[in-house]
Each structure stands twice: as structure tokens, then as C-alpha cells.
């Protein structure tokens, strides 16, 4: 932070705006500024006037931000709604209310208490999970920032208390608490560097510049008496646009995105800035891009509702059948003065058994039976699943294989509602920066004068080497050497992972093209906008760059003997090795112009004058724009360089071409005059004129070589993507980064291959550019939409022409085009094209677009989607997806706060989905099936007993038998299965994937006790047959449930008859002494379970499914037979077109074709 060390040399004296030719240009009024004051442009801000009546009457949003699902006032109604939109809960609410009427066949307490327990337990779980989010909100809202309190004094204040119009002071490496208009900075010309990674995923620093009129406000006391008046656009979600004006001292000045600093972006490379608050809280652009925290339900839970509808229909049907039979029987019950069913006492009863009003009695019976048969529907199902899911979440949280020791971050299931969905994921929508990558660049290889240097190994190459099962051996162009040890050399210098003794330690002077090598690394040391910082105590130099690429290039040049150590307003100083003397000398280069990089130019140039007076244009850029700018004499090494660039790209590296040329003095003077004229224009034609002038100077270049930088992937990303692809999961990349950066990462992750046909949809066409120059928004929108639609249709035609073979196609689309592709009349065609391609990459996507794409995929194919990201720009996407996974990375916790599950590294997604997802899905689905099985079994005994008693609505069991069946005697084994069962181990998941003998009726309680015993044995032993992986806990709960039943009926039967009612001593005196009781129990259990046992045995032995084959491997001891294991594994792997396995197969096909040719 500023002030913690001695001042650094020469920092604030530099007017950075004079280094930039294209970025820092004079602000001008454009057509949009004429709309200010009209609809959509009505916001008025009084800067530094918090007490003015106009500011008080604005009623703008405060700066408090929340990500919670509930508030204190909405928790009860919203949570109750969540619970009672579950069909079963609503059904039991109705039956609970009816239980207070005389219609109920059981006491009201036995119906209401279980319902209250179920609802209460679930609401408590929801409250605990939301409280965790609330604590994170409190931490963010209570961050502090310096705010002007008057008279030039700044005091620390909480973020949540900020108001529109406040003047704030932000210091280096702090986040912006709201959307601000930049007034001034520690630099004289109000320049500052901003990192927007949390917003758009880009690691490149953005250069922002305040208005010249406010640039002098660099001290606290300057704001005493400062007043300004801002009119601007209303709050909106567009991150890349801003239109406004500032009135200061009677003059009006235009505001543009160049002056806007967005909430959650970070101040970098700048000691401090002063800004005026324009948008707060929910009005800020990042919050405008987010959505309310959704209520997510798993597909199994939705299917459960459908099953419960079916069960409800069965209950109604059985109740209807019973009521009809009961009505007919009741009507005929009174004949010739004799009561056939005298024990029901119809002469003294109410209307329920009145033979004279049998039709009314039938209606009442229907309601009573509907309550009695409610045991068909398992009331404990939801709460049992909630408990099981919480325990599953604990296992996920405690999984040591998903613990990131380096950052001390375990996996964390922030909500347990979606565990089983992890096993059903069809499409993953991933952010790039911070999710797939580490946000760091490493210089790893280069090609100079047609010779390849560097023996570092990328993540992709290592993954392919492991897939081959052999050590990596690399061959140089000159000799066949095993460089495997050097290949895995880990450099201690951040940004530099280069290893080649031919040019390290000054050995490059002996290379055949030493002069070209010298120019190559000199260009890296000079062609940039990096600022060196020298620590006065240690004399160590550190670099602050706009992008990690630039920092990596400067560091590489330094490590190889070309040390950039000082920058002034107009010069760059480099220490380099002199070819003639062989000694290190200090050289001074006068910087005349910097033509900076942007996504349209795809190149950067500097014009310098060396100590000999030569004018040099040094240029670096993308291969597709650089090769066409080479002169005829400058193409000597073109063929070799192109080959090397293709090899580097195939290894997942980002490449740049380096070239230069000498300028004539006359030519430079003409250029300088024209560029100065173009920069001074205030019309809309200024940008096109600047582009035209730079185009003429950057030509006839001489090729030096190419750099290869690794956008360092997180460890294990290629392996993880390959495994997920083999499991049939599709992966889309949605990033705010530039297209070329996203494509490079696509190659690095093996989502793209060299032999893939890329369908690129963008609006960078001459036709669109010509329409844009007119400035007519309606015409631009119409032409752009037509262009995007045409490109989508052409892409579909290519797919159809290929016969639907998606292997060769990848779809890449930019943010501007995506805006039109997501229109209602286009989005379904776009989705058809995207689904037909092997890989999809969406570049320059805003947070809102990420969320809309996720919604389109989720609703379009109806399958489970998972979104994964690490920044605030990913929040909408995470909330929109069926499952949101947040990466708990270095920068911020916004994604984690809005996620369902948090992990520290992308590679843990493999274990999360393929192990925990598989287990949770199988456990929950099996658990649901057995819940319905045990309740249907129990319910049918009630129905059969009803039929036997002419549907008199008399329960077969004691009230407490009914109430405790789902709690003590059948639920625990099912829950144990839901927590502990494993059909396949984690290693293989990752590697592969009542009458007595005389026929007379016995007593009702004796018959009920016998039936109940059979049910307890059957449902528990059926569970034992279904379990694939026994643990001690499962043995305890299965056999313990049976034992508890016998203990309960014995102890409960010993209670006085007034308490135990019909169960009084029924087991001791009637059941236990009777041989028929034990024989019937054994016969029912065996006859009930034998069909399932025979079916399972035949299927396992003769028609095994994939997990069954893996179980045979384990049981027969064939785990170590590689040939058989591979056969089983290949049967499980789905054909894949992405991942390094697909890349390896493509290479093999290419080799076979070349050999056959």
C-alpha cells in the first residue's frame, strides 16, 4: 500500500496519457449525449452536496447489497410457501386439518405432530443456510472506505452508508464500493489502472482517465468547496457503455466509459484515486447484471411430486371403491329388524353408519378413508431426504481429495438440496479466468530466426503424456535428446518457465543468428507500457503491467540478459549484452509513440529512437494480422515460424509474432503530423482517422520470431475436462475475455483442436462497420441482427452438409453478436447450431448474457446444467443454472456467496460429479423408490384389512403403530442406504464409471400384529438385498429396526390397557407362543423377496450393467488384469470430440493418413 515504503523513483512524474496514442484521447460530445435529460437518461447527481434539498429529494437506492434468499419479514411466508408447494406436504396439511373433525380414523395429534416436525426441520435447515449468506453480506456491506465529510477532511465510512454524490478516496488494491466517476488520481493526468476480473473475467488492466478539468484535485484539501453537477443515463446492465455530462464552474464536459469505475473492480498500479458516487446498491451495473437468489429444486424432487400425484390418485380411487362398497353394505345392513353388523352399533351411532342415509355415510366414509390411506404417501420422505442430503453434504465437505491445502480451502456444499443433481449433469457452462486458469502467464517457449527454443511442458502436454502411459521425451530440431527432467523444471521466477541452455546465461551470442536473437529480446524489453518500480531499500525491480502477458515478456527479456530498469516520460532504459564487446551495457531508447493493443488491431507497436539516431518501429501481434504486414525481404523465416506457431497453439500456448522495421525521418514526421491532427479532432470520425494513420505506418515489417506464453491453467484442468467429456458431459466456455484469448484457452484445455472447423460469429465485417459510421442505432441494430442470423444459418448449413457429424466443428461467438443471437426469434436456431457443435465458446459476454445463455441451454434441452465461475460477473450464471458451483479463488467471494457448492479448484469438479454425483444420485433415487415401496406395502395391508371388514374405516393397527412405522421401524435402514451405500468405489468411479390354520378369523390386534411384523421384516430385508456396500452402521440400522419392533411391541404391550389399548400383552400372550405366527412371518418374507432375488441374480450373472461389471472385477479379483479392465472401461466411455484423448486420436488419424499417402 502507499506510504508503507519509501517513495519509488519517478512514478508520479510520468504523465501516462502521453504514452498512449489511442486510449487516452480528448473527450468529445457524441450523438448519445444529446439524449441526456430524456427517457433513460434522466439521472441527476449533485457531487459533494449531501445536504442539498435536491440531493435529499432524489430517493436513490442506498448502497446496501444482499444475496440472501430470505429477509426477516419474508422468511416465514416464503419458507412456508416453499414447503407447501411440495405436493405431499400440502396433502398432509389438508388431512391434518381434517383430523380435528369426527371423520378422522386416528387422533389429531398423531397427524399434526409429524407434519410440524417435517416442516419445522426443513425450515430450520433453510434458515441456517441463509444465515451463512447473511454473514457474508454483512462482511461486504461493512467494508470501509474514506468519504469526504466536509472542509477537505476524509473519514472512514461503511460501504452500506454511501450515498449518491459522495466523494470517496480509494487506495491501491482496494475495491470500488459503488459506481464512481473518476475525478483524479495519484498521476498528474488523472490516469488510473483498473482490474475488472470480477466483472468481465479479464486479467488485463484497463486504463481509465478522469477529465482534465478535475485532474488537479490530488490532495484531500482540494475538495473543500468542490461542487459539480452530473447528468447521466439511468441504471442499466450494460458494463461497456456510459453517457453523461459534468457541469463544473459553468462549463459542461462529456463523460464516457473512460471515466466510469465500476463496483467490485479493483484499483491497481495507482496509489489512490478520488471519485464521485454515481450509482449505489442495486443501481450499480454489477448488481443490475445479477438476479434474485432462486429457489432451486432437483429433478428427482420434481419427479417425486408426480409420483405423489399418482399415489394421491390411487388413494382417491381406493377411497372411492371403499366408499361405494361401504355405502351399499350400509344400505343393506338393516333388514327385517336385525343389524347384520351389530358391532358397529348403527342404532346408536351418528350419520356415519346410518342405513337410512347410506349415500351420505358413503361420502363421509370417502373422506375418512382418504385420511386412513394417507399412509400410502410417506410423510417422512421429505424430511428423511433432507437429513440424508445434509449428511451427504458433510461427506462432500470432509472429502480430503477435494481439499486445497495450499489455500486451506475444503469443498463446501452451501445448500444440500441439489446433491443428486450432480449425478445428472449434461452441460457445464464455465467461466475462463480464475476458473480454468490461474490468472498468471508464463513465458515458456519462443521461435527466433526459424529456430525453436524452450523445453518447458504445458499442462496439455503433460496430460497427453500421462494418457500415453510413457515418460515425456522431447526432441530438438538439432539433436535427439531426452529433456524430460528439464521439461518439468519449475522456475522460481514468477512468469518465467523457460529452459534452454542454448540461449540462457548469455549463450545466445554463439547461435547462428545472434543478431536476430538480440533484436528479438530487445523488442520484448522495449515494446510495452510496463512501469518499473525500484525498491529503494533492496534495489530490486518489480514490474507493474496492464496485462500478465506484458509482464511475462519483460521478465523473460530480463532473465535472458535484456533488463528493462527505468522509464521516464519519453525514454526507456535497458541493460543488455553488447555483441561486439561481450559486456553488459546500458542503452537508452527515446519513446516517440505508443500504438497500444486493442481487440480490433490485435497488435501493439512502439516507435523509438536508439542511441545511434535510428528510428525503429517495434511491433508484436497476432499471427493473422502480422504475417500479412511483412515485407518481401522480411519473410526469410516465415515458413518455419508458422510451423512453430501451429505447434505452440496445439500445445495450448498463446502466441505473438514479433517484427520490426526502420523508419525514414521524413516518413516519421509525416506520420506524427497526421496522428496529432487525428487525436485533436472532437468529431465522431476521430477513431477511424487514427486507425487509418496507424495502418499506413505498420507495414513492410521484418519478421524476428514468435513468443509462446502459457496462460497457466489450474493443475489438472485438461485431465478433468477429458474425464468429463468421456462421461458424456458437454462443456461450454462463457467468458468476458477477448476472442483470441478465449480461443487460446480453448486449445489449452483441448476443447479446440487444430483440425476443428471453427464457426466464428461476430460483427467485425466491413458492411457492419460502414453502417456503424452512420450512427443510426435502429439501422445498426437491424443490420447486425440480419448479419448474425445469416451467419447462424450458414453455420447450420455447414453442419448439415457434414452429415450431422459434430466432430469437426466448434462455435465461437462474441458478445455483440450474442446479444442478437439471444433474441426470442433467433435463440432457438442459435441453440440448434450450438448443440450440434463439439465445443462452444462465447467471448466478451456480459454477466447478463452469461445468465441468458445458461437459461437458454437449461430450458432448451430440458437437461441438468451446471455453471461454474469465480467472480461477480458469474453470479447470474450460477443462479440461473440448475447447479451453481463457485470457485473460492484469490479474488473476492461473490461467486461463492451465490453458489450452491464451492470448490477451490476446477479439477475437483471431476470427483464432485463422477464420484459424489454418482453416489448421491443413486442413493437418493434408490431411497425414494424404497420409501414408496415400504409405504405402498404398508398401505395395501390397510386396504386389504378394510376390504376384509367391509370397508368400515377401522384401522388394522394401533394409532402408535401407525405413527411410528415411518420413524422407528422402516426409515432408518432407508436413510442409511441414502448415506452410505456404494455400488461402485470412488477409485472405479474415476477410473471407469392373516389367517390361522383352521381358516377362522383371529383377533384384530393379533392379525394386525402379524401383518405389521411381516412388513417390518420385508421392507428391511428388501433394503439389505438392494445395498451394494455394507457398513457397520447399515447392519445396525437394518437389524436394529427389526429388534426395536419386537422390543417396542413387548414393552408397549406391558403398559396398562388404558394406554396400550388393543396391543395389551398381544405379543407375549398371543403372538410369541404361536407357531403359526413365526411360520407365516417366514413364509411371507421368503415368498415376497424371492422374485427380486432371482431377478437380480440373473441380471447380475448374465446381463450385468456397467457398475455390475465393475463389481465382478472386484469380487473375482480381476482388478489387476489390465486387458480386462480396459475392455470394461472402453465399454463405459462415451465417444468424445473434446479433451486431450480426442486430440490424441486426431493425431493418430492424421499420422495414419500421412503414412497411407
Summarize the structure in words.
The protein is an alpha+beta fold and 1157 residues long. Helices cover 43% and strands 17% of the residues. The strands form seven sheets. Strands 16-35-34-33-17-29-32-31-30 form a nine-stranded mixed sheet, sandwiched between helices. It has a nine-stranded antiparallel sheet with strand order 19-18-28-27-26-25-24-23-22, sandwiched between helices. A six-stranded antiparallel sheet has the order 3-2-4-13-5-11, with no helix packed on it. A hairpin with a 6-residue loop joins β20 (531-534) and β21 (541-544). ATP binds at residues 431-433, 550, 597, 620, 654, 735-737, 844, 850, 873-874. It is an enzyme of class 7 (translocase). It is a multi-pass membrane protein. The chain crosses the membrane at residues 87-105, 111-128, 307-329, 362-383, 931-948, 960-980, 1006-1030, 1036-1055, 1075-1095.
Amino acid at each position: 500500500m502507499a506510504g508503507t515504503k519509501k517513495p519509488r523513483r519517478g512514478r508520479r512524474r510520468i504523465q501516462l496519457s502521453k504514452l498512449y496514442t489511442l486510449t487516452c484521447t480528448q473527450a468529445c460530445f457524441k450523438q448519445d449525449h444529446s439524449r441526456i435529460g430524456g427517457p433513460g437518461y434522466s439521472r441527476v447527481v449533485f457531487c459533494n452536496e449531501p445536504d442539498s434539498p435536491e440531493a435529499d429529494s432524489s430517493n436513490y437506492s442506498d448502497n446496501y447489497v444482499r444475496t440472501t434468499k430470505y429477509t426477516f419479514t419474508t422468511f416465514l411466508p416464503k419458507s412456508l410457501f416453499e414447503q407447501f408447494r411440495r405436493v405431499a406436504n400440502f396433502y398432509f396439511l389438508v388431512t391434518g386439518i381434517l383430523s380435528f373433525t369426527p371423520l378422522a380414523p386416528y387422533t389429531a395429534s398423531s397427524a399434526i405432530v409429524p407434519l410440524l416436525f417435517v416442516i419445522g426441520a426443513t425450515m430450520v435447515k433453510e434458515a441456517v443456510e441463509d444465515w451463512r449468506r447473511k454473514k457474508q453480506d454483512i462482511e461486504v456491506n461493512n467494508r470501509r472506505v474514506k468519504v469526504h465529510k466536509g472542509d477537505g477532511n476524509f473519514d472512514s465510512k461503511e460501504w452500506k452508508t454511501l450515498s449518491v454524490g459522495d466523494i470517496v478516496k480509494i487506495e491501491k488494491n482496494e475495491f470500488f464500493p459503488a459506481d464512481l466517476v473518476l475525478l483524479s488520481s495519484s498521476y498528474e493526468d488523472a490516469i488510473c489502472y483498473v482490474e475488472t476480473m470480477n466483472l468481465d473475467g479479464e486479467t488485463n488492466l484497463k486504463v481509465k482517465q478522469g477529465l482534465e478539468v478535475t485532474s488537479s484535485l490530488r490532495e484531500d484539501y482540494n475538495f473543500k468547496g468542490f461542487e459539480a453537477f452530473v447528468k447521466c443515463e439511468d441504471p442499466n446492465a450494460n458494463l461497456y457503455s456510459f453517457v453523461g455530462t459534468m457541469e463544473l464552474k459553468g462549463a459542461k464536459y462529456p463523460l464516457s466509459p473512460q471515466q466510469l469505475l465500476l463496483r467490485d473492480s479493483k484499483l491497481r498500479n495507482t496509489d489512490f484515486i478520488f471519485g464521485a458516487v454515481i450509482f449505489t446498491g442495486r443501481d450499480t451495473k454489477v448488481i443490475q447484471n445479477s438476479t434474485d437468489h432462486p429457489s432451486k429444486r432437483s429433478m428427482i424432487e420434481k419427479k417425486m411430486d408426480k409420483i405423489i400425484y399418482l399415489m394421491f390418485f390411487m388413494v382417491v380411487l381406493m377411497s372411492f371403491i371403499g366408499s361405494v362398497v361401504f355405502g351399499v353394505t350400509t344400505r343393506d345392513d338393516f333388514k327385517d329388524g336385525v343389524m347384520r353388523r351389530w358391532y358397529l352399533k348403527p342404532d346408536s351411532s351418528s350419520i356415519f353408519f346410518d342405513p337410512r342415509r347410506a349415500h351420505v355415510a358413503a361420502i363421509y366414509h370417502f373422506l375418512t378413508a382418504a385420511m386412513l390411506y394417507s399412509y400410502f404417501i410417506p410423510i417422512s420422505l421429505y424430511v428423511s431426504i433432507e437429513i440424508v442430503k445434509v449428511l451427504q453434504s458433510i461427506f462432500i465437505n470432509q472429502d480430503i481429495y477435494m481439499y486445497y491445502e495450499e489455500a486451506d480451502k475444503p469443498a463446501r456444499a452451501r445448500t444440500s438440496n441439489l446433491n443428486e443433481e450432480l449425478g445428472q449433469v449434461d452441460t457445464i457452462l464455465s467461466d475462463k479466468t480464475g476458473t480454468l486458469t490461474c490468472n498468471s502467464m508464463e513465458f515458456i517457449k519462443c521461435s527466433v530466426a526459424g529456430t525453436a527454443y524452450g523445453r518447458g511442458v504445458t499442462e496439455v502436454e503433460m496430460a497427453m503424456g500421462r494418457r500415453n502411459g510413457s515418460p515425456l521425451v522431447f526432441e530438438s530440431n538439432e539433436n535427439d535428446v531426452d529433456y524430460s527432467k528439464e521439461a518439468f523444471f519449475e522456475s522460481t521466477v514468477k512468469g518465467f518457465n523457460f529452459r534452454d541452455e542454448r540461449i540462457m546465461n548469455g549463450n545466445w551470442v554463439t547461435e547462428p543468428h545472434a543478431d536476430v536473437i538480440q533484436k528479438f529480446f530487445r523488442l520484448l524489453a522495449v515494446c510495452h507500457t510496463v512501469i518499473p518500480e525500484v525498491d529503494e531499500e533492496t534495489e530490486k525491480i518489480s514490474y507493474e503491467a496492464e496485462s500478465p502477458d506484458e509482464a511475462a515478456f519483460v521478465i523473460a527479456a530480463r532473465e535472458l540478459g535484456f533488463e528493462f530498469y527505468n522509464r521516464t516520460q519519453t525514454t526507456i532504459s535497458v541493460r543488455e549484452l553488447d555483441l561486439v564487446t561481450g559486456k553488459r551495457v546500458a542503452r537508452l531508447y527515446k519513446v516517440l509513440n505508443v500504438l497500444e493493443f486493442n481487440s480490433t488491431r490485435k497488435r501493439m507497436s512502439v516507435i523509438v529512437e536508439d542511441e545511434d539516431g535510428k528510428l525503429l518501429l517495434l511491433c508484436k501481434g497476432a499471427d493473422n494480422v502480422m504475417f500479412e504486414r511483412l515485407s518481401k525481404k522480411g519473410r526469410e523465416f516465415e515458413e518455419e515460424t508458422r510451423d512453430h506457431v501451429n505447434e505452440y497453439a496445439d500445445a495450448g500456448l498463446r502466441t505473438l509474432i514479433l517484427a520490426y522495421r526502420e523508419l525514414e525521418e521524413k516518413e516519421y514526421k509525416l506520420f506524427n503530423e497526421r496522428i496529432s491532427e487525428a487525436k485533436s479532432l472532437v468529431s465522431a470520425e476521430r477513431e477511424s482517422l487514427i486507425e487509418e494513420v496507424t495502418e499506413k505506418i505498420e507495414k513492410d515489417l521484418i519478421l524476428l520470431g514468435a513468443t509462446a506464453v502459457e496462460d497457466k491453467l489450474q493443475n489438472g484442468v485438461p485431465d478433468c475436462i477429458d474425464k468429463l467429456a468421456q462421461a458424456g458431459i458437454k462443456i461450454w466456455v462463457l467468458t468476458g475475455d477477448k476472442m483470441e484469448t478465449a480461443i487460446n484457452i480453448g486449445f489449452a484445455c483441448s476443447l479446440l483442436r487444430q483440425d476443428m472447423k471453427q464457426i466464428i460469429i461476430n460483427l467485425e465485417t466491413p458492411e457492419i462497420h460502414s453502417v456503424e459510421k452512420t450512427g443510426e442505432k435502429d439501422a445498426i441494430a437491424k443490420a447486425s441482427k440480419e448479419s448474425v442470423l445469416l451467419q447462424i444459418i450458414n453455420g447450420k448449413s455447414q453442419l448439415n452438409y457434414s452429415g450431422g457429424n459434430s466432430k469437426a466443428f466448434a462455435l465461437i461467438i462474441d458478445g455483440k453478436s450474442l446479444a442478437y443471437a439471444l433474441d426470442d426469434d433467433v435463440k432457438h436456431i442459435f441453440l440448434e447450431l450450438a448443440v450440434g457443435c463439439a465445443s462452444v465458446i462465447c467471448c466478451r459476454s456480459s454477466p447478463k448474457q452469461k445468465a441468458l445463455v445458461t437459461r437458454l441451454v437449461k430450458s432448451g434441452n430440458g437437461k441438468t446444467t451446471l455453471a461454474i465461475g469465480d467472480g461477480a460477473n458469474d453470479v447470474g450464471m450460477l443462479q440461473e443454472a440448475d447447479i451453481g458451483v463457485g470457485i473460492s479463488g484469490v479474488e473476492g467471494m461473490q461467486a461463492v456467496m451465490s453458489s450452491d457448492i464451492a470448490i477451490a479448484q476446477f479439477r475437483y469438479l471431476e470427483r464432485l460429479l463422477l464420484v459424489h454425483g454418482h453416489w448421491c444420485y443413486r442413493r437418493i433415487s434408490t431411497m425414494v423408490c424404497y420409501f414408496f415401496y415400504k409405504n405402498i406395502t404398508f398401505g395395501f395391508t390397510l386396504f386389504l384389512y378394510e376390504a376384509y371388514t367391509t370397508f368400515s374405516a377401522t384401522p388394522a393397527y394401533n394409532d402408535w403403530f401407525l405413527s411410528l412405522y415411518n420413524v422407528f421401524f422402516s426409515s432408518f435402514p432407508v436413510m442409511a442406504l441414502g448415506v452410505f451405500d456404494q455400488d461402485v468405489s470412488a477409485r472405479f468411479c474415476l477410473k471407469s464409471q392373516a389367517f390361522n390354520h383352521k381358516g377362522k378369523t383371529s383377533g384384530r390386534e393379533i392379525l394386525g400384529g402379524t401383518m405389521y411384523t411381516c412388513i417390518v421384516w420385508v421392507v428391511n430385508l428388501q433394503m439389505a438385498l438392494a445395498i451394494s456396500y455394507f457398513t457397520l452402521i447399515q447392519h445396525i440400522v437394518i437389524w436394529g429396526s427389526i429388534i426395536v419392533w419386537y422390543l417396542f411391541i413387548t414393552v408397549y404391550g406391558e403398559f396398562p390397557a388404558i394406554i396400550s389399548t388393543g396391543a395389551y400383552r398381544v405379543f407375549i400372550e398371543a403372538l410369541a407362543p404361536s407357531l403359526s405366527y413365526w411360520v407365516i412371518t417366514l413364509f411371507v418374507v421368503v415368498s415376497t423377496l424371492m422374485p427380486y432375488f432371482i431377478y437380480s441374480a440373473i441380471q447380475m450373472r448374465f446381463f450385468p450393467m456397467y457398475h455390475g461389471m465393475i463389481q465382478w472385477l472386484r469380487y473375482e479379483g480381476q482388478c489387476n488384469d489390465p486387458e480386462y479392465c480396459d475392455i470394461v472401461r472402453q465399454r463405459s466411455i462415451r465417444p468424445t470430440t473434446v479433451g486431450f484423448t480426442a486430440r490424441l486420436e486426431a493425431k493418430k488419424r492424421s499420422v495414419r493418413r500421412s503414412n497411407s499417402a
